[in-house]
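[step 3/7] fold_predict: job queued, chain A
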Amino acid sequence: MSIKRLVLDVLKPHTPGVIELAEELSKIPEVSGVNISLSEVDQETDTVKIVIEGTAIDYEEVKSVLAAFDAVVHSVDNVAAGQRIVEDVETPQD
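[step 4/7] structure written:
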């Protein structure tokens, strides 16, 4: 399966920061872009949303980079796989 997009909810220590983490994630082969958004700040940790896009993302390598930063995946919130990314379409609900 070729993963094109991953959206992860991640818990990480304050340091190293999101800039360093984004730089390391972007070095993974086949990754073309990384976005990290801060969701919550606690006394010792940050909760961040990480969006990774590429042509064939290796999830195990992503987890390895996160582990090197003492970060853990709380949840995988979205995955896009296949030949192209299918965008979500909102439909009105009654």
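[step 5/7] annotate
The chain has a mean pLDDT of 93.
Residues 59-68 form the longest helix (10 residues).
exit 0
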